Amino acid sequence: MDRSYHYTVYAGYHQFYLSRDEDSLVGSGAASFWTRETIRKLLATGPGLVGIGTGTYGDVPVSIHLAGGDPKDDLTGWDHVAETWIDLCSGRLHVIGCPDDPAGLIELEPGIYRVRVYSAKLDTIENQRGEDYYRIVMWSDAPCPPRVLKQWPTALTFECD
């Protein structure tokens, strides 16, 4: 199942999405989606939807890797790492820029996937732009509560405008 995809995604309002379908984006506008806590995690979740917080307001490079299992990798070199899960009962993963800018579509086996988001070069952000980039690793797994594996200490400075 190891496959990789590379995109340039528009991160308006310092965010982009992974979604099972276009209708899941409706949840991104709820007051419970981007809260102080989810902003700190740079990760928000809703039914069939994962919101990923970014340092840059604009285009960001994103790579998505489908793995056979937990990569159990070293987090050194990454500024922030968080994970959650997404139910892809449709077997489709939409990569969507914010507010509604389709960037890619990945076909995979329907099921529940762990989503681990690695963020790098967050220290380059100046005037809402930087060299930050994002690596997402996904694998088939059971649901898990959203959690931070490595916290970027100034994540709260990336609050939505």
Would you summarize the structure shown here?
With about 160 residues, the protein is mostly beta strands. It has one helix at about 35-40, and strands at about 5-10, 15-20, 45, 50-55, 60-65, 80-90, 90-95, 100-105, 110-120, 135-140, 145-150. It has a six-stranded mixed β-sheet with strand order 1-5-10-9-6-11, with no helix packed on it.
Layout of SSEs?
Elements: E1 3-11, E2 15-19, H1 36-41, E3 43-46, E4 49-53, E5 58-66, E6 80-88, E7 92-97, E8 101-107, E9 111-120, E10 133-140, E11 147-150
Parallel strand pairs: 5-10
Antiparallel strand pairs: 1-5, 2-4, 2-7, 3-4, 6-9, 6-11, 7-8, 9-10
Structural class determined from secondary elements: mainly beta
User: Which percent range describes the beta-strand content?
Assistant: over 45%
> Given this structure, which CATH class is correct?
Mainly Beta
What does the average pLDDT come to?
91
Strand order of the largest sheet: 1-5-10-9-6-11
Report how far the terminal alpha carbons are from each other.
Answer: 38 Å
Order of helices and strands: EEHEEEEEEEEE
CATH architecture: Sandwich
Can you tell me the overall shape? Answer: globular
Radius of gyration: 14 Å
The CATH homologous superfamily corresponds to: Competence, DNA-entry nuclease inhibitor, ComJ
Uncertain regions spanning at least 5 consecutive residues: 156-161
Q: Could you give a short account of the major beta sheet?
A: 6 strands, mixed
How many structural units, i.e. domains?
Answer: 1
Helix content: under 10%
How many H/I helical runs? Answer: 1
- Total count of strands: 11
CATH topology: Substrate Binding Domain Of DNAk, Chain A, domain 1
